[in-house]
Amino acid sequence: MKRRGLQLSDRQRDFLQSMCFLSPSLLGVCLFFILPFGVVVYYSMIDGVGSRNFVLLENFVKLFHNAAFLMAAKNTLSFSVLAVPLAVVLPIVLALMLESRIPLKSQFRTFFLSPMMVPVASVVLVWQVLFNYNGTVNEFLLLFGADKVDWLQSDYCQVVVLILFLWKNLGYNMILFMAGLSNIPRELLEVADVEGASETYKFFAIKLRYLSPTVLFVTILSLINSFKVFREVYLLTGDYPFEKLYMLQHFMNNTFRNLDYQKLSAAAVIMAIVMVLLIALLFKAEDWFGKDVEG
Amino acid sequence: MKKKRLFGRGAMFLLCAFFAVAFLLPTVLTITNSFMSEAEIKSNYGMIFSTTSGGYVSETVNLKFIPDKVTLSQYVTGLIKSPDYLIKYWNSLILVVPIVVFQVAVASVAAYSFTRWRGKIRSGIFFFYVILMLMPYQVTLVPNYLVSQWLGLLNTRWAIILPGIFAPFSVFLLTKFMRRIPYSLIESAKVDGAGEWEIFTRICLPQCRSALYSIAILVFIDYWNMVEQPLILLQDADSQPLSVFLSSINAGEIGLAFALATVYMVPSLLLFLHGEEYLVEGIANSGSVKG
């Protein structure tokens, strides 16, 4: 009886101590993220900060009829569909290349990773020189007799941003895949070698199987990063880009300017719901694949 | 057979070299172009960045690596003659350095808590941190804006620094590093009569030194590159960091822009050259959302 009481107080003391260490971070997170997000949810369901009538879903319905929001959502989505597969496949190729026995391997890794450290604001000048209507890429196209393309003012504009996005993000994803590759048990690959398995077979039957949790993680990470591509677009083209480059964050910025809290809050809540669904998917998938590989 | 493999490796090497050039090109171009004189820049890129005020505008675009004559004139104009740009540089530093220092400090205490004690409530909180970490700006900026407004911080640096300090990314990554410290180390310190704070400062922190460095690098580049937050939380043009300001340099001063862009990437490139191994270690450990 006495022992049990002691145990309980031990646990209580542990809990208090853990909360002491956690409190600076937890208080900050509550103050700057959780509490105001609660207010955002509240704002998304009232008709105005002044009148405060409860309207439930009206703001969301309005948002889904808002042409600017729909365009921004569509553009962001179509960019993601374009960017995510490439941001997953290309780094696997890079990681596999760096796994083979070639000279200057560590230098190549450094080079591939270096764009991550260069602020986007620093290199947009080069992108402007390359993809301007009178720019280098078009000069190059003329050499081969092709027509000039107005890169930033046509349907090709997402390609320009895509190249910048990939340039910046491939290195990070490559490191994740390299870490994944190094976790594959060596014996397994050696056995495959002894049995005379081809490189292709080894890749699909062994490596890709072990990489599958990493593939999923990188997919979700790239999806999230593709939502942030506003930064590249803004630095390249400013506040008012070509229609196809009008991203969700542009919509948010413009709504901030009018301080339309209802619209802002509804948009933030919708994004949060979409993200939570994606993250739940990620967790489920990690469970599923993790079991598969370990078992 | 052997010949075939050698050929394959050669092709692989060439492919790597091609990628390497593509990856390095933008950075190298920016740096070399910053050493060109204004006249040379104008004759190279006049077509693109032509101004209405006249000036020399060339017919063709001439992307060049090596300046005809290396000159520091752009740097002199940008950094010495007009203090404007130095102020923007200072703006960037004074935003980013406190965020890095305090985010890592707050996170190390929190990560110790997540490492040392497990329980339903705490793993629930950790799970919540992971979700928060993955939220894009479209979600977090509206709450940040509201708090700044209530506290009267809007249009001050604190509106960016304070939410930055409590961003959960460092907590998440540092917890993953700390959980690798052998539990016996902590246990034996406890038997020796060390208090929790002592265990944290004497055992945990020294064990995590390289982890702290790699996290500091990751946080630094993230905030050094920030654009979204200052655009919304800092309306005042004078306090904008260089990342936002660079894009607003007008077309007539393109040479200057190259020089400032170069100066702007120096801190993060130096960090990269010095701490690449730590950075790689940090990235490799972020590769799973599970603790």
CATH first level of chain A: Mainly Alpha
Cα separation of the termini of chain B: 46 Å
Briefly note the structural class of the backbone of chain B. Answer: mainly alpha
Tell me the count of domains of chain A.
Answer: 1
Q: Report the CATH architecture of chain A.
A: Orthogonal Bundle
If you average the pLDDT of chain A, what whole number results? 86
What are the segments of chain B in which pLDDT stays under 50 over at least 5 consecutive residues?
Answer: 51-57
Overall pLDDT confidence of chain B:
85
Q: What is the gyration radius of chain B calculated from CA atoms?
A: 24 Å
Write the layout of secondary structure elements.
The complex is a heterodimer of chains A (about 300) and B (about 290).
Chain A (H helix, E strand, L loop, with lengths): L1 H42 L14 H7 L2 H33 L5 H9 L6 H12 L4 H8 L13 H26 L3 H9 L4 H29 L2 H8 L10 H11 L2 H34 L1
Chain B lengths: L1 H32 L4 H8 L27 H9 L1 H34 L3 H15 L2 H14 L7 H8 L3 H10 L4 H9 L4 H12 L1 H16 L3 H6 L8 H5 L7 H32 L6
Helix pairs in contact in B: 3-4, 3-14, 4-7, 4-8, 4-11, 6-7, 8-11, 9-10, 11-14
Tag the structure with descriptive keywords.
A: 295 residues; mainly alpha; MetI-like fold; 12 helices; flat; B: 291 residues; 14 helices
Task: Give a written overview of the molecule.
The complex is a heterodimer of chains A (295) and B (291). Chain A has a single domain (63-294), classed as MetI-like (MetI-like fold), CATH 1.10.3720.10. Helix content of chain A is 77%, strand content 0%. Chain A has helices spanning 2-43, 58-64, 67-99, 105-113, 120-131, 136-143, 157-182, 186-194, 199-227, 230-237, 248-258, 261-294. In chain B, 72% of the residues lie in helices and 0% in strands. Chain B has a domain at 85-182 and 208-248 and 267-285: Orthogonal Bundle (MetI-like fold). At the A-B interface, α1, α3, α4, α5 and α7 of A face α1, α4, α5, α6 and α7 of B.
